Amino acid sequence: MKECVHAAIIMDGNGRWAKAQGLPRTAGHLAGADNVRTIAIAADEMGIRYLTLYAFSTENWKRAREEVKYIMKLPAVFFKKYMQEFIDRGFRMNILGELDRLPDNTRKVLEDAMEQSKNNTGLNLNICMNYGSQREITLAARAYAKDVLEGRASLDIEEADFEKYLMTKDFPPVDLLIRTSGEQRISNYLLWQIAYAELAFVKEAWPEFTPEVLRRCLEEYGHRDRRFGGIKDE
Ligand code: FPP
């Protein structure tokens, strides 16, 4: 089957899932965080090498204060429960986003997770926290402009050179982008990186996105005819 090296997921529907169970929205986020572990393990076992998850966007600050506060505390809970297991499995944690705008404690937990796993060579588990693609591209443009002004870069930049300024500079392009909970939007996620990604929209909310649903997405991906703008992918 066609290999999916890099899968990205927009983990949507935690709030609606919780409401349907008569639970507060925060319970949906907690169940969602637990599902990150389940799906990371499944993805690794299915041969995915990079799994990039949208946990908190630059726009999510607009949510109720209490909900934002809860999500900011989740990384500590999550890594306390699962970090040892991730290390044992050889996972490498990468956090994408503007970390310096996060609460100090949250940032420290995320930085520790990256530090502890930096020599691992297994699944790259990339968590996007305070991430927005337009912001990422803007910051890249700023860094590039600075390099030009200071003589480190030439004006004749090519796409492959510009990619080195993005937060995903160490990762291959996204092969498959999945969004859960029935919404069909990209929501400012990995706009550059999904240029030729296949898209899968599933009805399940993130807490009910099981390894079986992931397998279904990969099977569907395996049947797609990826042409990358050419005529036929032989
Ligand atoms: C979208 O559902 C979900 C979020 C904005 C938060 C996602 C966060 C997690 C899954 C936790 C992951 C955290 C770590 C540290 C692994 P929604 O709240 O927008 O759902 P709704 O559309 O039903 O309201």
Describe the structure.
The chain is of the alpha/beta class and 234 residues long. Helix content is 42%, strand content 15%. The chain has a single domain (6-132, 174-222), classed as Decaprenyl diphosphate synthase-like (Undecaprenyl pyrophosphate synthetase), CATH 3.40.1180.10. It is built from seven helices and six strands; from the N terminus they run βααβαβαβααββα. The structure holds farnesyl diphosphate (FPP). Residues 11-16, 29, 32-33, 36, 55, 60, 71, 74-75, 78, 127, 206 line the site of farnesyl diphosphate.
Sheet with most strands: strand arrangement: 3-4-2-1-5-6
**CA-CA gap between termini:** 13 Å
Q: What is the 3D form?
A: globular
CATH fold call: Undecaprenyl pyrophosphate synthetase
Kindly estimate the percentage of residues that lie in beta strands according to DSSP. Answer: 5-15%
| The CATH C-level class name | Alpha Beta
Helix content: 40-55%
User: How would you name the oligomeric state of the polypeptide chains in this document?
Assistant: single chain
Mean pLDDT value:
97
Main sheet specs: 6 strands, parallel
Q: Please identify, by name, the CATH architecture.
A: 3-Layer(aba) Sandwich
Low-confidence stretches: none
Superfamily (CATH H level) name: Decaprenyl diphosphate synthase-like
Number of helices: 7
